[in-house]
UniProtKB/TrEMBL annotation, chains A, B:
Coiled-coil ranges from the UniProt annotation: none
Protein keywords: DNA-binding, Repressor, Transcription, Transcription regulation
Residue stretches making up the HTH lacI-type domain: 2-55
Organism: Catellatospora methionotrophica
Lineage: Bacteria, Bacillati, Actinomycetota, Actinomycetes, Micromonosporales
Protein name: LacI family transcriptional regulator
Length: 323, 323
DNA sequence: CTTGACGGTGAAATCGATTTCTGACAGGGT
DNA sequence: ACCCTGTCAGAAATCGATTTCACCGTCAAG
């Protein structure tokens, strides 16, 4: 790894001049050319580490997500990346696995590596962003807005989405509509369940025996579905609050020969890789990529010094009717 | 961001002592305690940037993949992450989008940030790893082994997998077996197609009109399938060389009412989120996570100084029969 | 009582880039 | 001829941690 000093020596100038060439300051054409030749010659790349240390900031933003294997979050990541790259920033992806400890570790890294900012889909509700806030590190919450701290957030209207999905089941004539949602300490999970409750109230059984808190994963969805079907009076329809759990739920329904249209199914969030649509289910489409691009834009604004009070942007979901 | 100097001042010791406390060198219990108290008090975190600059290496490894939205690569990423984290390393994910320029940029970053090592699923065959090699930066190739350079690699037997998948179609009695594979400059694509050719030779039409080079993406798979079906004598079966393209291909087959078992379908690689298995297709299961864990282990060995000649590890695929 | 070893500590050099400060020099106006 | 302005370039300080080197006690062996 050649350094700026070696390049300077080779080009017969001072390190300061080399730095100026690479940062677009005023340098005479001849010296600039000499520097560029020497740099190319020895394939010199300025050390980001040294640069970051000196400037106390880097062009890297951290994207902290709870589950890298969920297509929703990878689509979101693509959105973030597109915007960030266009602005000259690199994105590093941090997978927390819904684990607060891992999350905290990554936030620590973001700080101690003086990253430019953080976009976070918090694991659980009570993520500790206090360190970032105290250090004035720009933060944008996405998909889930953490409890208690006031930061920019980009979310969807979970309650309205849950309500609309459930409402669709009501209109299809189902009577006992169950709900499988995520962990009770995750805001998106409870809000979607609230939407379900809104829609079933007065339109069927609101009985909380039909409500299951699972884990936003395939197996959790399957387990919850099995439990529901084992009830004395099993539900005739189910609203599943995320994409992965719907996979599990549908598997169980399939095993028991109760696939739609026998059972009504509405899902919050899409599964991008279904080769065909053999089964009629209602889907609340999530603008995953837009969540990412929007969050990235907000973050870039903050990074460039914008310090207006925190904003919350609510994107719209779209309901795909049964088809 | 408090520095080691401020902690030293608060604890009444020298910065050297603070450093020693945090790195487990010999320090008297009282001073150590004082340092720890002061550090906690002002919630001090050592600057990774400074540390990295001084040590000329960081505990971060870069994982460079061509498509973060492909479940295969995210599963692989999980594997890498599990092993890396257990060894105290952080993983940063770099998505190249099959773009050589982006890839080169990320490799440059890895170098200039003095990362501990790189695991790369190369975009296209002729990725330029020469910079890494010249700088002796540990590299492990995964899934695809780059052309021309001799580095550790963890791969699967693509040709054997392609042959087995196609052979299964032969045994099911299909006559005109087509092949949809990836870009012709990606090794995995051509090898899988070679496997197809092995199996169809003498067992049906080897006509290269039945061979399509697509892009390893959903839409590419769909387009290729449409073209194949539009042939004067369309194929009665198809071997699709990756998971995403199979989604597109099956969509087209569905639209034309030619879903399996009417058409034979065999796929290299799995789609994890199929809620049910309504259609009988043959799947070559890829050990994605194992590819990741194995690659990470190799890399860690290299990082800790192992300099034996490069190795190639070939993992086994498993054929899931029609079901 | 001297010598050597050793644990504990601080001062200062170091990693590689950026930037301020300063000086040299050229050109234009009076 | 003199001053002022402006451009270009180098010396040196700086970012924050690590580590070498030197030094001081203390204690044990001779």
């Amino acid at each position: 790894m050649p350094t700026i000093y070696e390049v300077a020596a080779a080009a017969g100038v001072s390190p300061a001049t080399v730095s100026r060439v690479f940062n677009g300051a005023n340098v005479s054409p001849e010296k600039a050319e000499a520097v560029r030749r020497a740099a190319k010659e020895m394939s010199f790349t300025p050390s980001r580490t040294a640069r970051t240390l000196r400037l106390q900031s880097s062009e890297v933003i951290a994207l902290v997500i709870p589950d890298i294997e969920n297509p929703f979050f990878t689509a979101l990541a693509r959105g973030v990346e597109d915007v960030a790259r266009a602005a000259g920033y690199s994105v590093v992806l941090c997978n927390t696995d819904e684990d607060h400890e891992k999350e905290l570790r990554y936030l620590d890294i973001a700080l101690s590596a003086t990253m430019a900012g953080v976009i976070i889909a918090a694991a659980g509700g009570n993520s500790d962003l206090s360190g970032l806030i105290a250090r004035k590190c720009p933060v944008v919450a996405v998909d889930r807005s953490p409890h208690g701290v006031d930061v920019d957030a980009v979310i969807v209207d979970n309650r309205a989405g849950g309500r609309a999905a459930t409402q669709a089941l009501v209109e299809q004539g189902f009577q006992r509509i169950a709900c499988i949602t995520g962990p009770s300490d995750v805001e998106t999970a409870t809000q979607r369940a609230d939407g379900w409750r809104d829609a079933v109230t007065g339109n069927g059984t609101t009985d909380d025996r039909y409500l299951r808190f699972a884990d936003f994963r395939v197996d959790g969805g399957a387990t919850a579905m099995s439990e529901l079907l084992a009830l004395p009076e099993p539900p005739d329809a189910v609203f599943v609050a995320n994409n992965l759990m719907s996979v599990g739920a549908l598997r169980v329904l399939s095993e028991q020969g109760k696939l739609p249209p026998a059972t009504g199914v509405a899902v919050f969030g899409d599964l991008p890789f279904l080769p065909l649509v053999p089964i009629p289910i209602t889907v609340v489409h999530m603008p995953a990529r837009h969540l990412g691009t929007t969050a990235a834009k907000l973050l870039l604004e903050r990074i460039s010094g914008d310090d207006q009070p925190a904003r919350t942007i609510v994107l719209r979901n779209q309901l795909t009717p049964v088809g």
